[in-house]
Design goal:
Length: 598
Amino acid sequence: MEAIETRYRTQTCGQLRLSDVGKTVKLAGWVHSYRDHGGLVFVDLRDRDGITQLVFDPDTCGQQAHEESRRLRSEFVISITGKVTARSAEALNKKLPTGEIEVHVQSLELLSGAATPPFTPDQHESVNEERRLEYRYIDLRRPDMSQTLRTRYRVSKIMRDYLGERGFWEIETPFLTKSTPEGSRDFIVPSRLVPGSFYALPQSPQLFKQILMVGGVDKYMQIVRCFRDEDPRADRQAEFTQLDVEMSFIDMENIISIIEGLLRTIWKQILGVEIPDPIPHMDYDVAVNRYGTDRPDLRFGMELKDVTDLGHATDFGVFKSAPMVKCIRVPGGAKLTRKETDALADWSKGFGAKGLAVTKVTAGSLDTGIAKFLASIAPKLIERMEAHEGDLLCFAADQPAVVHKVLGELRLKMARDLKLEPSTPWAWVWVVNFPLLDWDGEEKKWNAVHHPFTSPRDEDMANLSSRDQAVLSAMKSKAYDIVLNGYELGGGSIRIHRMDVQQEIFSILGISSEQQKLRFGFLLDALKFGAPPHGGLALGLDRIIMLLRGTSNIRDVIAFPKTQSGADLMCGSPSELDDKQLRETHIRLSMPAKPAAT
RNA sequence: GGGCGCGUAGCUCAAUUGGUUAGAGUACCGGACUGUCGAUCCGGUGGUUGCGGGUUCGAGUCCCGUCGCGCUCGCCA
């Protein structure tokens, strides 16, 4: 960082080198640490650019400044004038980029004192995240956090530059918008001017960007906040940021190639890493069947293999009666103890499984666990699983959804627990050919797998009038997800641009024509007045930064994140409103009465 | 809403598994020190063991409740 010269500084704390020796400079920043030797005081001065050692020597700074320097404490904010001096050979600090020089202070100005901080930004020991969130302004001074903010800025700049050069316009869409009960729960905002009415914060700008296409914008992008009122996870926050993209007169491969180019540029510029060209595609069905999920982590093998036929041939009741039996081979898993494999079975119940059967592979045979039930099929099983001595075979037998969930999660757990070596640091894949629709057996209705505006494949268009469960289940959409190391970085689709098709989809989803008009009338109207074929995608900016920075905690890549209960521990949100605000927005609370304070 | 884990000095952790006055490092305060760089040396302050209740002769430790934080299932078109 080049400093902009001000009354407080001429350079930054990360800038000075041997070539600057002899210059008189001004530096400003925080007291990172101080070492008081009585007659001589050293201060490490820090700004976001680095750390520079200051020397307070009464001979150069005078008695008064020297006395003042002895009263400096952690995180005081100061500005100094001084002379850049080469350090002697014994005094070099190889840990600092500025370690070949130091600044001999001539004058000191205290800009702000600081109370004793609850923790310091020195990163010597990890601090409770609750404290970090409460005192975020101190946490953000840590070089790690500073570096993350910088990476985040650089990535968003690359996104704007890359897409801007290709004719995309960044256009803002409303935050105060209309609630649509589909999808995730909305955050709602009361209207003061229209009593009893509410806005919703956008789950994504989906409909606005489609309408921009109808509006002839042709190429749109926006780095935009989205809001979903659902419980957070390690990689999920109620409020998050997307790179939202939409283009007209395209098909799937056009948007895929644009986004690949963007990701390639980001990984190259931020990490110096090359991304495969092209990124391989995988059918949704293949992903689910082989990896148990639509966002497979391809850094590890342990593919799910169907052994339903072998399972049915055993005398093992659980296997004989199960609709599906699948197996994964965990290399080296035989070293797990009985206690550990029992724990796996318990763990699997968290995903709806009744249990998890395991057996260890010995030289040409099976031992322990359910080995005795498998004796008759052992050779075929070992052959199909390509199993070797020392492997662990893990079986799930249940409905397909449960089998896939359990074994899909087990793969990842085994990779973590056994610290398996990834086959590549970055495993990219486009997941394509998603089903269009998903039958909800509980509610007896169809749901859109991606969203209701996703176009069916051309070859499925003819079947839209069908209401046959098998026909509708078999329909595929023009949706695509980009997956990296098991994280869904983003997804999108080619949209429906014909009103009749959109109405047909709504009808399959069980939305009456009255409801269609009420909730999506503006979209149907827009499609009526000449909509170009269009499609796009949204990338999760937070997750991209997580992967670039090597963290699995989304809060680490957001300047002011929220806790799992949706609280901002620094500013204290959410908070109650006073009566006046409630009256103005026509809101009466119906909270259960609080127990009287005693 | 459910499951699991955590909560002890400002911070990071300990406390022989229910037993004396809850310790250590660091930070902080005072003192010494002109080449340190996670400075060093000497001395000192600092605790409602998250909160409330219970069991017990005795609770940081066990039980119940509650609050907060984390991971997770459900949820996330």
